[in-house]
Specification:
Nucleotidyltransferase, domain 5; 8-stranded mixed beta sheet; about 20% strand; 7-stranded mixed beta sheet; alpha/beta; elongated
């Protein structure tokens, strides 16, 4: 049997025994007990200037390794080119050498990046002395397995990457660059696996890239809303970086890029509708209740006597754009977003039932539906099939444009709003004022996240390429209503009751324009078009 693995002189084959000296045995124990000592003494890295050298850890790198060792969950916010990835590799190298039957998943935003991480671990392993190595069983671009049962795999971050597997460590590299939907799906998929054990570690390391899922995990860790131990590294903690280096870097990039990539600030897109400073200070909350497989999030339970308005954005569903709704408490200013729904799986013909159900829960909420495309069908089902009388009517006038209708019929009246360039422009400007002046409070993370990428594109605002704005559209609809002359009366409880009674009268008139009524005696009665009761005598 060959003592080396696949003709690689730097790798020991499985089953090969190497006798230890007493000094080596003592060193082995010391390395096992102290990962920092092991890395400094035996791990080698490639320096761009000097080639293969010992890994002389910086203080912040030591802090990282200690945190990985002592905590199940660690999240690190670190700037570019600081040595964060190789520090993680150092910890994993120690972990697989001194722990039996463990599995490590190296996950990155791209498969090529994950495999590059694995290759760096392999390189470090190859330069260990043979007496420290475990024999190699498997060694390729995507996996390694050692004779102590330790395994490492590399894959792109996705819910399918580790499905069916059991891992002792999940490492998420540059997690801020994983698309938000994929990141959320990943955590929803893997969390049961993570929480089922008592020692599984999750290590998340990234440079910020907007206010996304990584941002949420970081803020929650700082405020104690999750179990992650937060580590932040300032660029000045990296040796060789000073004010002169900073100014040179800014000249070669930009001040904004430096703030995000080296100061590790969470910045949204440029040219956002909402002021960047305001976006950074918008405080989201965790929902009180999550229903409908995670799609419906409740932030405030309905309160007796409060007026609620639901705004509805409709898509074709089933894997396409998202259908979304927001419910607002309009009883008094500031208005508050109290519930949201967002799904790209619900069919348009099923959506009305959910809208009706949620609207009923919130004190028979008033409902404004965007009736572009399939939205018209949703509105029709709500009104005609489900007999929901709380739909907001919109009147169209060539001079005034669209306004909230106080009437209940007519050729120019629709049960819902047809979004146009004019209505969206008004809605966007109103939304900007409401949010920046704290007259509309947003508590939903997904909504805030969409606002950070809701940008100017010429004369209009829409989602940045590759991002969504379905929840933002529900804000736009609400904001458009907020300055309508009829809006304030809608939010008054007495006026609301009058509207309801008028709607019921209108409904009855449509159903019984000349309805005959039996009096049970033999005579007949009927109601005329004016609502007067007439009795026919014998």
């Amino acid at each position: 049997m060959s003592e080396i693995y696949l003709n690689n002189p730097n790798l020991k084959s499985s089953g090969v025994e190497i006798g230890w000296t007493e000094e080596q045995a003592q060193e082995y124990v010391r390395c096992m007990e102290d990962p920092v000592y092991f890395v400094k003494t035996y791990m080698k890295i490639v320096n761009v200037d000097t080639g293969l050298v010992n890994f002389d850890l910086y203080p912040f790198q030591e802090k990282m390794i200690r945190s990985f060792t002592n905590n199940r969950f660690t999240i690190a916010k670190i700037g570019r080119q600081s040595g964060k990835s190789i520090t993680c590799i150092a910890f994993f190298l120690h972990y697989i050498l001194f722990n039996k039957d463990v599995s490590v998943a190296l996950l990155a935003n791209k498969l090529a990046t994950a495999r590059e991480l694995l290759s760096r671990l392999q390189m470090a392993y190859e330069h260990l002395p043979k007496w420290l190595q475990q024999g190699v069983v498997t060694w390729n671009k995507g996996n390694i397995e050692l004779e102590n049962g330790a395994k490492v795999m590399a894959a792109a971050t996705s819910s399918s990457a580790i499905r069916g597997g059991s891992y002792n460590i999940l490492f998420l590299d540059e997690f801020a660059f994983v698309p938000n939907e994929m990141a959320e799906e990943f955590f929803n998929s893997v969390y049961p696996t993570i929480s089922s054990g008592t020692s599984t570690k999750v290590i998340i390391v990234s440079t910020p890239a907007g206010m996304n899922h990584f941002y949420k995990l970081w803020v929650d860790s700082e405020e104690g809303r999750n179990s992650y131990n937060p580590i932040s590294v300032h660029w000045s903690e990296v040796p060789g970086r000073d004010e002169k280096w900073k100014q040179t870097t800014i000249k070669n990039t930009s001040a904004e890029q430096f703030r995000q990539e080296f100061d590790t600030e969470f910045l949204g897109s440029t040219n956002t509708l909402i002021n960047v400073t305001k976006l950074k200070n918008m405080a989201y909350r965790n929902p009180r209740q999550v229903l409908e497989d995670g799609s419906l999030k409740i932030y405030e339970q309905p309160k007796e006597g409060h007026i609620y308005i639901t705004t509805v954005d409709v898509s074709r569903g089933q894997g396409q754009d998202f259908s979304a709704l927001s419910i607002f408490d309009c009883t008094k200013m500031p208005y508050r977003q109290v519930a949201t729904y967002r799904s790209n799986e619900i069919p348009p013909m099923v959506y009305p039932n959910l809208i009706n159900r949620v609207g009923t829960l919130y004190n028979d909420s008033l409902i404004l539906v965007e009736i572009n495309d399939v939205g018209q069908q949703v509105s029709d089902i709500l009104y005609h099939d489900l007999e929901n009388t709380n739909l907001i009517s919109i009147s169209s006038d060539t001079r005034k444009g669209q306004t909230i209708s106080s009437g209940f019929g007519g050729k120019s009246t629709t049960l819902g709003i047809r979004t146009t360039k004019a209505t969206k422009k008004i809605g966007c400007m109103n939304m900007k004022s409401l949010i920046e002046e704290d007259k509309l409070l947003i508590r939903d993370f997904e909504t805030i996240n969409e606002l950070t990428t809701f940008i100017s594109k010429g004369p209009k605002y829409e989602a940045e390429k590759g991002r969504t704005d379905d929840l933002v559209d529900t804000l736009v609809l609400f904001s458009w209503m907020s300055t309508d002359p009829y809006f304030k009366s809608m939010c008054d409880i007495d006026t609301r009751n009058e509207i309801y009674e008028e709607r019921m009268r209108h409904l009855e008139e449509n159903m019984l324009p000349f309805g005959f009524i039996s009096n049970g005696v033999g005579g007949e009665s009927f109601v005329d078009a004016d609502g007067d009761l007439w009795t026919v005598s014998d």
